[in-house]
Amino acid sequence: MSVSTASTNVDPSLLQSVKLLGSQVGRTPLHTITKLFSKPGVQLYAKKEWEQLSGSVKARAAYNIFKHAIESGQLSRDTALLDATSGNTGIAYAKIGHVLGIPVTLCLPENASKERKEILLSLGATIVFTSRFEGTDGAQAAARELAASHPHKYFYADQYKNINNWKAHYHTTAPEIKEALPGLTHFVAALGTTGTFVGTGRRLKELDPSVQLISLQPDNPLHGLEGWKHLETALVPGIYDPSVADDNQEVGTEEAWEIMKAAWKFEGLRLSPSSAANLAGAIRVAEKLESGVVVTILPDNADKYSEIVSKLNII
Ligand SMILES: Cc1ncc(COP(=O)(O)O)c(C=O)c1O
Questions:
Q1: Within-domain flag for 232
Q2: Where a domain ends, among 128, 156, 184?
Q3: Which tens digit of pLDDT belongs to each residue from 50-86?
Q4: Between helices 12-21 and 88-100, what is the axis angle to 10°?
Q5: What angle do CA 216, 221, 225 make, to 5 degrees?
Q6: Residue 1 Cα, ligand 1 centroid: separation in angstroms?
Q7: Which of 228, 251, 278 to mutate to test the pocket of ligand 1 (most atoms within 8 A of CB)?
Q8: Contact yes or no for 105/154 (Cβ under 8 A)
Q9: What range defines the domain where residue 301 resides?
Q10: What CATH code is carried by the domain that includes residue 250?
C-alpha cells in the first residue's frame, strides 16, 4: 500500500488495527485457464479477487480509502464513512468499519438484492435507500446531499472521485500481476468506478510500455453486469482516464451467463456475472493472438448471486 504520513492526532490503537487489517487485503491467487481456452503460445490467467477480505476486488479500494482517511485525521471512531454503493464496495466498507469500530452509512438503490441488504445489515451498516429508477447515479446524488448537510458527521468517501481507489490497484494489483507474470502482454478488465482498470493499467504500462490494456464495458445501458458501467449513458466517474486504455471492447450479459455455466463445468470456477464477463472479454482477446500472456480480473464469485445461479442451474 502507498506510503503516507499519519496526522499526529490519530488514535495509535486505530492505526495499529488498520495496519493489521492490511494483511487480509490483496495477494490473491491466479487461476490458469486450460479448458475454456487453449492455444499453443498463448496463456490466459484470471486473478481470483474473491480470495481476500470481504470476498471481492473492492477490499483493495475500500481499505486504501479507509487507511488514508484515518491517517490524515479525516475519519475516526467519532465520524462515519459515507458512500453510495449497490454492491461489493459497500460490503467491503461495512466489513472494514465493523473490524475497526467505525460506523458506515451507505446509500443504496432500493432494488439491491436481499442478500446484499442482509450482509450489510449483519455487519452493522446503516442503509439509506434510494429510488430503484435512478440506480447508482441516484444513490450518489443522495450521498452527496447527505454529506453536504452533515459535514461533521460524515467522511464522504466518494469512490468514484477518490484517488485512493485507483491508487490501491496501482500499488497492489499491478505489482502482484507483474511479479507473477513477468512476460505479461495483455491486461483485460471491466470499467465500473474504473479504479481497477485505471490503477492497474497505469502501473503495468509504466513497468512495460509494450503491454496492451483492454477495458471492457457492457454492450447496452440495461445490462445485468453488477459493478459495470455503460459510460456512454452513465455518470462518468471522476477518476476515469480514457487515455489509459489501448482498446475498449463490449461484452453482453447473455454472453457472460454462457461463460458462467462453462466456467463452472470446465474450470471449476463459480463466477459472478461480472467475473464471467471479464473472462469472456479476455478469451476474445486471447483467441486473436499468435503468442502472448493475458490476464484478467475476477472481481467476485457466485456467492451473492443466488437468483442467477439457480436460473442457470449452477450448483
Ligand atoms: C462485481 C464487480 N465487477 C466489476 C467491478 C468494477 O471495478 P471498478 O469499480 O474498480 O471499476 C466492480 C466494482 O464494484 C464489481 O463489484
A1: yes
A2: 156
A3: 999 999 999 999 999 999 999 999 999 999 999 998 6
A4: 130
A5: 55
A6: 19
A7: 228
A8: yes
A9: 12-52+169-311
A10: 3.40.50.1100
Summarised one tens digit per residue, pLDDT across range 122-176 is: 999 999 999 988 888 899 999 999 999 999 999 999 999 999 999 999 999 999 9
Which are the contacts of 225, defined by CB distance < 8 A and separation ≥ 6? 190, 218, 251, 253, 256, 273, 274, 277
* Distance separating alpha carbons of residues 313 and 119, to the nearest angstrom: 24
- Residue recorded with cell 492490511: 22
Are the CB atoms for 53 and 22 separated by under 8 Å? no
CA nearest to 277, candidates 79, 58, 46: 46
Distance 227 CA to ligand 1 centre (A): 4
Q: What is the whole-number distance in angstroms between the Cα of residue 228 and the centre of ligand 1?
A: 6
Cell numbers found for residue 118: 442482509
Atom 15, ligand 1: which residue's CA is nearest? 227
Residue 22 buriedness (CB in 10 A; 0-12 / 13-18 / 19+): middle
Looking at the structure, tell me whether residues 80 and 181 fall in a common domain.
no
Residue 5 identity: T
Residue 43: all three cell numbers together: 496463456
Judge if 180 and 306 occupy the same domain.
Answer: yes
CA 35 to centroid of ligand 1, rounded, Å? 25
Atom of ligand 1 nearest to the CA of 193: 9
What secondary structure letter does DSSP report for 269? -
